[in-house]
Every structure is written in C-alpha cells, then in structure tokens.
C-alpha cells in the first residue's frame, strides 16, 4: 500500500489547522485608530482609520477595566470590555480585553464567542471554569488567583464563583477586536422575536408551562 508522503501530510494538516482557527485579518499599517467621528454611512470590516498624523498616545490607553461592573442582576456577573470606542488604538489589532466581575455564587452562564479564543486569569476569589467540546465532553478547573485557563475558539464555556460569601474577579484576553457573545439560554428562550413554542418544547422536551416559566425567569 502506498503511504502519503510526510510533506503532503504536513501541509494537509497545516491547512486544516490554519483554516480552522483564522484570527482577525492582519493590520496593513502600524495602527488604524478608530475614527469615531465618521458616521456609519457604509459598512466595512472593522472601523475606519483616523488620519495617522492625528494620532495621540491617549488613543492607545484606556481605564475602561479599572471599575468594578455592577453584578446586581439575576446571574450575578458583569463583563466590561475594551472596544474601539474606549480604546480606538486597538482597532484592527485583533484583540480585546475583558474584566469579569462575579458576585458571590455569581455565574457567567454557558456562552460562546464565535470569533475568538479566550485566555482568562483569576485575580481574586475561586472560580470554577469549564468548556464543552463539540462532542459534549466537559473540561473544568477551579482557578485561584494567578491561575489562567484557555477557552478554545467558539466553544461553549462558563465561569462560576464558588464562594457564597465573597466576590471574584478575572481578566481575559480574546483573540478578536469583536469576539461576539451568545449566551446559550438567552439565545433560545429570550430571542426577539420569540422562538416558536413548538420548537422549544420539542427541543428541550418540556411542557408549555415549563417553557413559560423559563421564559419569564430569563426575561424573554
Ligand atoms: C455592568 O456594569 C455597568 C457599570 O456598573 C452597568 O452600567 C451595567 O448595567 C452592568 N450590566 C449588567 C448586565 O448588569
């Protein structure tokens, strides 16, 4: 039997790997500071660039992550993100930072980022993190301050503050300037307009009453 040459195998797997985890497009210049004054008459991939001669150091700095987010909501979490508004110099650089505040027993419910992988670092408290593969295998770890954990691109993941008495804090780096986020429960039970009852009843094997209760709990 003829075997595939190693070089061919190598290039085939390289193509698979590269095709599967494409980052944001590379910048074509040193920087492309987001010009927030240009009205959105047309849509481009990213934000239009400010004239480079108008660049200032202050466009590369932000204090957006310095303040604790308000975790007074049913899930008990708040995510604060850098973006092209609060950090215009990050436009086209392919990254976002996130500050994640968790109330006691607070959870960032299972969600995914369609355009980014995420590396999270626990700064305060004890955080149970986990992600689910496309084969529904669950990987979990308990993080203490200084520990970091990777959520692979687009996979469903969560963070949970296991301490019922104190808050927890984490920061994350994400590999896109616009990672996107879909919270699984809201993307099914709190859509606009509502997903048809028959779809949800069948998909989750629940009654109309149970569906109404879940919808109400999630503000759908
Ligand atoms: C997150 O915190 C900010 C700042 O305190 C607040 O304006 C926002 O409403 C909070 N978001 C949620 C979902 O609670």
From TrEMBL:
UniProt xrefs under Pfam families: Cupin_1
S-S pairs: 32-49
Cellular compartments per GO CC: apoplast; plasmodesma
Gene Ontology molecular function, alphabetical: manganese ion binding; superoxide dismutase activity
Residues that bind Mn(2+): 111, 113, 118, 157
Catalytic activity: 2 superoxide + 2 H(+) = H2O2 + O2
Gene3D superfamilies assigned to the protein according to its UniProt record, in alphabetical order: Jelly Rolls
CDD domains, per the entry: cupin_OxOx (cd02241)
Keywords: Apoplast, Disulfide bond, Manganese, Metal-binding, Secreted, Signal
Described purpose of this protein according to its UniProt entry: May interact with bacterial adhesins thereby protecting the reproductive tissues from microbial attack. Has no oxalate oxidase activity.
Family: Belongs to the germin family.
Subunit structure: Monomer. In the absence of manganese, it forms tetrameric and pentameric forms which show superoxide dismutase activity.
Protein name per the record: Germin-like protein
Organism: Actinidia chinensis var. chinensis
């Amino acid at each position: 039997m003829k075997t595939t040459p190693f070089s061919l195998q190598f290039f085939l797997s390289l193509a698979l790997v590269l095709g599967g985890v494409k980052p944001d497009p590379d910048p074509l210049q040193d920087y492309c500071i987001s010009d927030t004054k240009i009205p959105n008459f047309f849509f481009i991939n990213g934000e239009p660039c400010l004239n480079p001669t108008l660049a200032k150091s202050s466009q590369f700095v932000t204090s957006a992550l310095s303040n604790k987010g308000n975790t007074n909501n049913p899930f008990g979490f708040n995510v604060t993100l850098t973006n092209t508004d609060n950090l215009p110099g990050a436009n086209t650089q392919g990254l976002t930072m996130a500050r994640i505040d968790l109330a006691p027993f607070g959870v960032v419910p299972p969600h995914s980022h369609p355009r980014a992988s995420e590396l999270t670092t626990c700064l305060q408290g004890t955080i149970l993190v986990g992600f689910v593969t496309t084969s529904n295998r669950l990987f979990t770890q308990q993080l203490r301050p200084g520990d970091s954990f990777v959520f692979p691109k687009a996979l469903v993941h969560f963070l949970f503050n296991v301490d019922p008495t104190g808050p927890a804090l984490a920061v994350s780096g994400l590999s896109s300037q616009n990672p996107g986020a879909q919270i699984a429960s809201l993307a099914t039970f709190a859509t606009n307009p509502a997903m048809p009852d028959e779809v949800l009843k069948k998909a989750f094997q629940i009654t109309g009453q149970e569906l109404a209760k879940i919808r109400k709990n999630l503000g759908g």
